[in-house]
Amino acid sequence: MDLHADQIQGFFNIPVDHLYASTIFIPYMQALNSKNLIIASPDTGGTKRAKAYANHLGVEMVICYKHREKSNEVASLTVIGDVKGKDVIIVDDMIDTAGTLAKATDMLIEKGAKTVRAFITHPVLSGNAYENIENSKLTELVVTDSIPLKQKCDKIKVMSAANLFGAVIKSVENNESISKNFILV
Length: 185
Hints:
By secondary structure, the protein is an alpha/beta fold. It has a single domain (20-181), classed as Rossmann fold. The chain has five helices and seven strands. The chain has helices at residues 22-31, 47-57, 99-110, 129-135, 162-173, and strands spanning 37-41, 60-70, 73-80, 87-95, 115-123, 140-144, 156-159. It has a seven-stranded mixed sheet. The relative contact order is 0.17.
């Protein structure tokens, strides 16, 4: 689910169905009933994913541009687009230390965003991740249970991927199409 790069499918000797957490996340996003929703890519590499979410939800998209001078260290961060008065949703495939997410959230709030939520598939959450999330201005971090959380955090909501995987496995076993299990491709 939400492979970090589509090319990963080439490493398997069997057919691979690349599932997407959007099937799990989009109903929750829609239930927020925000009239000022905007989708954000956390970096230039995530623009394809963010654009797919934005198109499906019928909203605009912005891009957080980060410049690194050293590995795992963000030297500067800015947003391409206007977030003033918006409820921002950052979408990504994985979160590790949450350092960039915390900085991006604080920057988006400074640029006028009302709220910032992040929907991220795989919660690696290493190092100071929990502290970074708690100390940020992030409203909520929504993740799947693809990786178990190491500790509880009031800002983190976990959504199960079990029904998605179960439905796909059942369809494959019964030689049925799995396309009904995709919101974004």
